Each structure stands twice: as structure tokens, then as C-alpha cells.
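Sorry to interrupt, but I need a hand with the structure work. I would like you to pick a protein and set down its sequence and fold. Please put the record directly below this note.
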Amino acid sequence: MTSVTSPDQDHPGTESSKRHQDLSVYATIASLAIPTFGQLIAEPLFVMIDTGIVGHVSDQALAGLSIGSTVVLTTVGLCVFLAYGTTSQVARLMGAGRRKEGMETGVDGMWLAFIIGVAVCAILMFFSRPLCSVMGASGLVLDAAEQYLETLIFGLPAMFLVYAANGIFRGLQKVNITMVSAISGAVLNTILEVLFVFGLHMGILGSGLATLIAEWYMGILLTIPALVWARREGASLRPRLSGIANSMGDGFPLFLRTLALRICLVMTVVAAAHLGDQVLAAYQGVNSAWNFGLNMLDAVGIAGQSLVATELGARHKAKARMMTDLSARAGMIMGVLVGLIMIALGLFAAPLFSPTPAIRSLITIGMIVQGVFMPIAGWMWALDGILIGAEDYRYLATTCSLTALVYVACLLGLTTLARGWTDAWRIAMLWGAINILFIGIRAIFNGLRARTDIWMDRALAAE
């Protein structure tokens, strides 16, 4: 496990030693964030690849992909607690020296992930078309969305296993394998996508099938070593009902937090669907790149989450505070870099997402709006990961629910006003609302919480 400083260094030193310590923490964050990013981008990268290829099939197929992928990403996102909760628990138990218990907690999370994946897959088999219809799809767009979704849902058990296994790897701070999995999975997905869509002329169905195969490849690739490492620590691989129940109970507030956030994102897609097919198609292009960029920010947050949770498990409060401050700063720096990349993509790479000039112009506008606001998103995402690492779940569930209420109410009003606007102003409104309300309000809540010691004291009291 990575260690930044020894326990007796829990006090301030000289200015020179402080700079050296800060650089050491930044290096540690980078060593965890880079491979973690490799894992995080798996599902968004699959959708981004799908978007780039399906966008050259037809505008209706691209709009259908926007609806279908939103259902998939929402479903997967709602179960993000499988990774976040497992990361926090494993890291804190490892920091406390309770390695076997930590690994058994991770195995419990994997069993829970598989059970949830099978259940969700079964449910979506029966409700895929009604869900796509409720979100505003109709006609050829609805047919495309249903085709994509009904193919991809069979990969959900595998992706949930990936989430849970990565919780173990992050808690152990052994994250290189996650990057290998994501990169090789993306390469496989791209090859199969081109073969099925262009070679075999399967359209959006081929896109979903390619992603399905890549998801199961990743699930197997990560599950096997996770179980092997668990056995090395003497952990049992059998399902423990009490452990699975504890994992579900600990993850419930995280589920509520994520549900509130996903409602915001789903309502944004619904708003885009009601503002026209071209706005919806452009929204999908920007959204695929945004999800990719956000995972670069999330990688910094998860690195901070793992480091802070480990120090809290070892009861090093001062070091946990130091890592919190430096992780938040690293998140903002990453936000600046991602923002510049988003603007560059908008100006020069819009043709990759659609051959239609009008949609390209809308994508450029959305990308620029996103890029401007990325630094504050980076800061907020870092603090979000750290508060999750401290298992401050109830606070996050409450504040994210309040954010959702404000955001959805404002979005409905703005969408009504935008009916008389041009498409350019509509796409700018959607992404402006996301950044100012959806991200901005959460940034305020997270910043206020991080300034206090309440979340750390509660974490230490729970040990």
C-alpha cells in the first residue's frame, strides 16, 4: 500500500519539507489517478466510441443512442456505490491493519454486484421500450434506442462486477490492472464496433453487441485476480448473507445520492428530446465527451478518497486534512486541463461526432460552455470523492437531493422558455444549467462541509 509519510510526521515541518511533502502527495495522487482513470472511462468510452460510429449511420440512430445510453449509464451510475462504498471500506480496514476483514468486505461487495446486475437486467428486459418512450423517443428514434438498450443490458452483471472489483483494487491502491482492463476493453470494443456496424452492416444493433462483448471481457479479466488476491489474504469467497446485507445497508445513502444526481441528468436528456432531434443529437455528442472528461476529474477524487480513507483508518487526522486540501487543488488543476481539451474538441473535432453541419455547430457551442466551467467541476468532484471516502454518505444524500429539487425545477422553467429560442441558445442553456446549477450548488455544499472537521470526526468515531 502506498504511504506518503510516516506516522510520526503528523505535524507541520519547515517550508522546504512542506513543499517536498506536497509534491510527494501530488505524485501519489497521480500514481493512483492515472490508472484509476483508465478504469473509470470504460463505460463512457464505450458510449463515446458508439457515438462516433453510430453518428455516421443516421441522425435518428444517434438520437436513439442518446436515449438508450442514458438508460444504461443511469442504471450503471445508480450502482456506483458498489465501487465507492467498497473502496472506502477496504481502504479504511487496510489502514487499520485488518487486511482479511477488508478483503472479505470486498468479496461481499462483488456478490452484491452480481445479484443486483442479474436483477436489473431482468427488469430492463421487460421495460426497455416504455422507458425509452417516456424519455421522449418516438418513431425511428425509439426503435433505435430500444435495439441498443435491449442488447446492452445483458452486459450489466459484468459491469457491476467490474465496479465492485475495482473497489477492492482502489482500496488496496493496486490500480494498474484497472487501466489495463479499460484500455484493452476499449480496443476490443472499437474493433468489434467497426466490424459489426460497417463490415456486417448491423447498424446500432452491432454497436450494442460489440459493447456487450467488451463488457464481459472486462468483467472476467478483473473478477479473477480480485478473487485470487482475496484468497491470498485468507478471505472466504463464499457469499455471506450478513456481509452482503451490510454492504447494501452502507451503500443505501450512496444510492440515494446517486439517484438524485441521475434524475438531474435524465431530466436533462428529456429536456433535450423536447427541444428537437438536432438538439438531442448534439447533446449526445457533447455528453459523451463530458462523461469522458468527468472521469478524468473523478480519478483525482477517487485517488484522494483512497488516501484520505486510509489515513482515517490509521487515525492520522492531520494527514487526512492535508491530503484533502491537496486533492481538491489537484482536482481544480485537472479541471483546467480538461476544460482546455473540451474547448479544443469543440473547435476542431466536432465532425467526428456527426456529418451534419448544423449538429456540428451545436456540439461546438456545448463543448465551449463545458470547457469554461470545468475547473469548478474538478474542485467539486475531488471533494465529493473525499467525503465518500470518509463515508459521509448521509450528508451527500441530503445535499444532492436538495440540488436535484432546485435543478429540476429550474430546468423545467428554462425548457419552457427555450421553446421559442434558436437551437444554438437551447444547447447553450442546457449545458449552462448543468454547470451553474447541477455542479455549482453541489460545489457550495461540498466546500462548506470540507471546511469543517465534522466529517473526519464522525469517521474516526466509527472506527
Remarks:
- Confidence is low (pLDDT under 50) at residues 1-12.
